[in-house]
Amino acid sequence: MTINSNDMPPAPAPVLSADTRIKIRNSVMSRTSSTREDHQIMCVSNIINSNNNSQHHHSREQQQVKINDIVGDGISGILCKWVNYGKGWRSRWFVLQDGVLSYYKIHGPDKILEPVGEVHLKVSSVRESRSDDKRFSIFTGTKRLHLRAESREDRIAWMEALQAVKEMFPRISNSELMAPLDNVAVSTEKLRQRLLEEGVSESAIQDSEQIMRNEFAPLQNQLMLLKQKHWRLTDTLRQLETEKVDLENTVVDESQRQLNEVGASGGSRHDKYSESASESEDENERVDAADDDTDEEDNTFFDTKDFLSSSSFKSSGSGFRTSSFSSDDNELYAFEADDSVDPSIRAAGTNFPYVKHRKKLPDPVEKEKGVSLWSMIKDNIGKDLTKVCLPVYFNEPLSSLQKCVEDLEYSYLLDRAYEWGKRGNSLMRILNVAAFAVSGYASTEGRNCKPFNPLLGETYEADYPDKGFRFFSEKVSHHPMVVACHCEGTGWRFYGDSNLKSKFWGRSIQLDPVGVLTLEFDDGEVFQWSKVTTSIYNLILGKLYCDHYGTMRIEGNHNYSCKLKFKEQSIIDRNPHQVQGIVQDRSGKTVATLFGKWDESMHYVKGDCSSKGKGHESLSEARLLWKRSKPPKFPTRYNLTRFAIRLNELTPELKEKLPPTDSRLRPDQRCLENGEYEMANAEKLRLEQRQRQARKMQERGWKPQWFVKDKGSDTHRYIGGYWEAREQGKWESCPDIFGQISSDQIFD
């Protein structure tokens, strides 16, 4: 977003006078003489014409020569560049030379090796700021540089220099671009003269000319076709140029609208987020590892948008397999209405006993008070956010342990995968496993609040007979924070541990998962994969949203493996959240193609649809693997799903069976769910003070209760015993981690 973009009219294009060039020389050299004496770049003083007395009487030709001098030799100096809200204005060394404005970080002349960035003025626009007589901006069409001079005179000098350089590089007009091509004339006169010299008869010459015309006719036709293609291409380029200008105007107007809305809003919750005034320099200059890993694979996948927006896909007569749903307390399970599919497979995940769960959170007791996010995080840029203490206002009433079980919301996909494998169909098994791996991200859409960071030794259980699985997780390490989980279903086990490495970039948070998830079936087939990168954007201003991107590789120990690419969302992407993938056999042959969105659904087509021309031909064979459940009837301000609403539910019967370490018993989280915000903040502060002892406990040899770390690796394995202890109600070995700190737990 631009800063005060609404008061930045197009600047005039003044003629660069000698007086102006003197101002550039004086202002630039007065600020750079002490730090740039040895700089190799020619300073503006070298291009000042010695004769300045006739500055008001130069002819147009003389002025043009001086402008050329400036373009050739270049000018340089220090300007302040806006980086981001964390770093603010930073001094940069700018060099204007040969129509390119380059800028460098200031580390001393001997350390300047290459520019941080470059702007080609030929394709850029320059604007002044109305609100600040020292500021101006340069817009390239893809990014905007906000610059500030030391004085008003300096800005005038730089503006005149930039505009003068732009005039030296006029844009090619559409009429020039669309000028017709000269026709190529082909003559046989030289051939005729040569044949006459050899004494060839006139009739033979005419026959030769006719033969040549016949032979060259196809070539002439090809040239005409190429000429027509050339015309169509230039016409398309002209249309693209027009659309680009329209898009630029739309982006500027939208930025201005958002800025006005934010300025008019009060101190509500939505005020705490705002869009950065310009791209974070760190984000612009760093290389995205995920992109490096997956860019080379772009040609492997077809465009999901072509499938999802295709009229043939939407048509009822396209032959696409429609979906049927079975309702279980208004929760939907998608499966294919295909008579060829075994009924036992279609029923997998739906034939468990009915259990009634709550459908909404309790009504809040108190009115929530807003908190400025920027006031909380401005001092934490670059820090690990898992170690930053925030008020409960930014939390949702769930812990990270409970968030883990949300990956199993669509566990029926694993039940189907098990049934397919029993019937010897390994391909359908891995397709359902892939859909399951994607489905875990569906619950993150619109979830803008942070889960509670578990205490060391905190646990969570999820025993859901209506879904056919039971899940258990425990926080096994404090620094780094590691959560281990283990889940048992019908014919399968799902387990793993996770650790998030987070980075705060000023206007966004990047979360890189560390750890491997493992899925084991009773017949011995095993699949393993790791999660992709997650980023949360617009922390300061604008609409907060999260995105998942990168490549997920699902490795199997039998016949197939799968590769899923989560496409990163762009600013103007109208079809975000795309996921595309392929299933390959041991020889590397693609046997199936997957496509969809991580917040909507996943489909598959047998065979390789990435080849040109095959995508839409196979569209009629596309079948549904998974579809996201409907949102709850009673939405929460945390945007919890139907499944997430039940995760912190605590009935009197369940409370009697839980250990004292279960997340449902955590007081600050319970108070937040009940809307007792003052009490929740007080309890959170108390527990965080208690948690500061966790590192010392870990250093003194503390060990997790239900997991053990495998030798030679960083993975944790469930050792069993939890469900047996629960059956017997024996929790003597579990500490009261949510109570007051006892004297023997306080260390010097």
Automatic annotation (TrEMBL):
Chain intervals with Acidic residues compositional bias: 278-300
Region (Disordered), start-end ranges: 256-301
Gene Ontology MF: a single term: lipid binding
Keyword Coiled coil: yes
Keywords: Coiled coil, Lipid transport, Lipid-binding, Transport
Family indicated by similarity: Belongs to the OSBP family.
Domain of life: Eukaryota
Protein's name in the database: Oxysterol-binding protein-related protein 1C
GO terms for biological process, alphabetical: lipid transport
Organism: Abeliophyllum distichum
PROSITE patterns: PH_DOMAIN
Function: May be involved in the transport of sterols.
PANTHER family noted in UniProt: OXYSTEROL-BINDING PROTEIN-RELATED, OXYSTEROL-BINDING PROTEIN-RELATED PROTEIN 1A-RELATED
One Pfam family of this chain: Oxysterol_BP
Domain (PH): residue spans on this chain: 72-167
InterPro entries, sorted: OSBP_sf (IPR037239), Oxysterol-bd (IPR000648), PH-like_dom_sf (IPR011993), PH_domain (IPR001849)
